[in-house]
Structures are given as structure tokens and as C-alpha cells.
Amino acid sequence: MIKNVTVYCSSSQAIPDKYFAATRALASIFIEHNIGVVFGGGAVGLMGCMADEMIAGGGYVKGIMPHFMREVEWAHPKVQHFEFVEDMAQRKHRFLQGVDALITLPGGTGSYEELFEAISLKRLGKFFKPIIILNTDGFYDPIREQLRRCIEEKFMHPEHEHMWAFVDHPHEVIPAIRAARQWGADAIKIATLRQSK
Fold it and tell me: Is residue 169 part of a domain?
């Protein structure tokens, strides 16, 4: 059962509407399936859009934000469940606690950092949950290609491709979570490729 998911997404208000449309669609799906959302806590951009839709539909949403970002990202005033932490490192750590999956929506460097840290921890067997990348209008095609190249040129093990899933549409997110391969602490055994003799 999928109870709660962490959603990484942008705080920019200036991005194309197609990304807001996909965010609203995903929030509606979460509400329909009674899935709660943990997010960065912002009131603007895709973060604000996700929270607005969840709240309007009666869904559960929790924000996690460092104290110093309250003024930068404008902590969403209607989010009832909020956790303010000391710094960005603690925020990223809390994002991974008690959730059943991570979903990354289009975003900037903050979203990339959160995504790649989760992938790195999963590679080391320190995080086990599905990682789903919502590739709206091909936004993440360059990252998908780079990850593929990492595997092809043996910077990563072929099994590492099972750590994440790219989907093109919001309705594919939940099926991708359910279809994700089991992952465990033994992943550390293939974290580094060694030269064959």
C-alpha cells in the first residue's frame, strides 16, 4: 500500500503552464488514491500548486523547510503539517523518512540535488524506496541519457538502472511505484564496478 510519497519540484512561478497542469493532475491522482504528499513546503511554483490541489481536494500534505528559507520560499500558509529544520542537509534527510516512494517533477538545481542524493543513497543500500521521475514533455531526457551513458561506460552497474523509473504522464506514476524492483542493503555489493581479470 502506498500511504505517503515525497515530491521534489520547483518553486519557480515563471515556468510554462504544462508543468503546472501535470502537477495538478498528479495531485488529483494522489487524492483519489488517498496518498499523502511530503514536499518542500513552498507556497509558490509547482510546490505551491501541489499543495493547493492537495488541500482543495482534502488530501494530506506535509511541508519540510529550513528556518532560513521561510522568507525565500514563503512557507505555505495553508499547510497544517509543517516541520522546520536546521539546514538543507536535515531537510533532505527528512524527505526520505517514512515515505513509500520519491517522485521528482521538473525542477532546477535543488530538485536535481535531491534526486541525485536519493539515487546515490539507493546505490549504497541506504535508501530502498522507488524513485520515479515525471518526465513531462521530455524535460528529463538529458538526465535519462546521462544516466544511461554512465551505465554503458561502466561508471555504474547495469543493475543500477532499476533504481529509478522515468514516466511521461502523471497517470503512470502509481503503476511505476508498484512495479518497482525490490531494493535492499545488499546493493552496496555492486556499488562499485571492478576491473575483471
Answer: yes
